[in-house]
Amino acid sequence: MSKESEEKGYGAQFTVRPKFTADSVLPLSELSDPPIVKTQKIICIGASTGGTRALNALLPQFPVDCPPIAIVLHMPEGFTNDFASRLSAKSKIKVQEARDGDKLERGLALIAPGNKHMILRRSNDSYYVELNDGELVCRQRPSADVLFRSAARFAGPNAIGIIMTGMGDDGARGMLEMHERGAWTIAQNEETCAVYGMPKQAVALGGVDKILPLEQIALAALAKANQLKS
Q1: Contact 211, 201 (CB under 8 A)
Q2: What integer pLDDT is reported at residue 138 of this predicted model?
Q3: If we measure between CA atoms, which residue out of 87, 86, 111 comes closest to residue 99?
Q4: Lower CB density within 10 Å: C or N end of the chain?
Q5: Is 74 considered catalytic here?
Q6: Which pLDDT value is given to residue 32?
């Protein structure tokens, strides 16, 4: 190889970082039987490319007393707080960037901070979130797979999962786990997605109960949450 080629980097060795799964943050072996009776219902949402616009259309549709909402959006560190504030100003519910230990309550949506995984935890009949700076999962942090796996573990059939527009496959495996543990799951349809990547992968894995256009998702989630009331 010529010196010129070496200087241009043609002979350089490139290292491809491994693509970690949710196992690196919340091992599958930790899954326990999900709660079934007398537990708050919860809505978990994952989105990426096109997700800011989709959430701007989705969240204002939820009423002030809706079930608590946990959201993972692939957004860089430092941007999620301002985005949550803008969403809160135009919504009936309160929207805020999550802090470690925040309790999820009715009429509240928590958005995972950029560069932090968000794990759902349960305490008696309520939920709170734990922030984690573990490995990138599906090359993302936060990762929808991590949130969805924790929902499968700690909420099970009391959860509703929503996977929205986005590139890649983050959230697809976690949604399948939610589905297998009794959660009701929704994928945004191709026609209303900016990028039909994440929903497409979730559908392909068989983890989706309903495929809906963006404008119908909130109403369907609310109707299902009412059916789930214990």
Answers
A1: no
A2: 75
A3: 111
A4: N
A5: yes
A6: 55
Query: Mean pLDDT across the stretch 162-185?
Result: 96
pLDDT tens digits, 7-28 = 344 444 444 455 655 554 566 6
Query: What DSSP element (H or E) covers 48?
Result: none
- Give SS3 for 154: helix
Per annotation, catalytic residue among 102, 145, 169, 170: 170
Question: Could you tell me what percent of the chain has a pLDDT over 70?
Answer: 82
CB atoms within 10 A of CB 133: 9
Strand ranges, E, within 98-164: 103-104, 108-111, 117-123, 126-132, 159-163
Instruction: Write down the pTM of the prediction.
Output: 0.86
* Catalytic residue selected from 65, 74, 85, 123: 74
145 among known catalytic residues = no
Cα dihedral angle (121, 153, 25, 106), rounded to 10 degrees?
-30
Among 107, 117, 113, CA closest to 77: 113
- Side chain identity, residue 6: E
What is the pairing mode between strands 184-188 and 108-111? unpaired
Strands 103-104 and 126-132: what pairing?
antiparallel
* Catalytic, out of 48, 91, 143, 150: 48
